[in-house]
Hints:
Elements: H1 9-16, E1 24-26, H2 28-37, E2 40-41, E3 47-49, E4 55-57, H3 60-70, H4 84-102, E5 113-118, E6 121-128, E7 137-142, E8 147-149, E9 155-156, E10 159-161
Parallel strand pairs: 2-9, 3-10
Antiparallel strand pairs: 1-4, 5-6, 5-10, 6-7, 7-8
Amino acid sequence: xxxxxxxxxxxxxxxxxxxxxxxxxxxxxxxxxxxxxxxxxxxxxxxxxxxxxxxxxxxxxxxxxxxxxxxxxxxxxxxxxxxxxxxxxxxxxxxxxxxxxxxxxxxxxxxxxxxxxxxxxxxxxxxxxxxxxxxxxxxxxxxxxxxxxxxxxxxxxxxxxx
Length: 162
């Protein structure tokens, strides 16, 4: 079998992904307020799907480490075959597995990674707080090239999934 003895994808995620250090938990209402604070429009036409009651928040450092080590940006872009929706779904799914493997014995809420549909583009976001007392911010990231940032200009989120 070689040097590594991985029996599942979860084993690989556990081995290669960085540790995660949740700093707080938040609710759907906290997330909606953070979108506005982060200059991302959520309005009556937006659809927000929150499948858990609580979500973990992580530091920007942990988000950067996740993005860097996830490997999703290393996938090959193919229009209509593996494009923005596939990159975003891959990063979202890997984020859920990453979070689950690092906190399976000490769950503090849902994973801190989500997906956004804006216009005809799909990308990801992380729930970021530096300390428990700090404000929650939404950091957007493009899984096709690993860019991440707080938005300086107003953005519109049509569909949010976390």
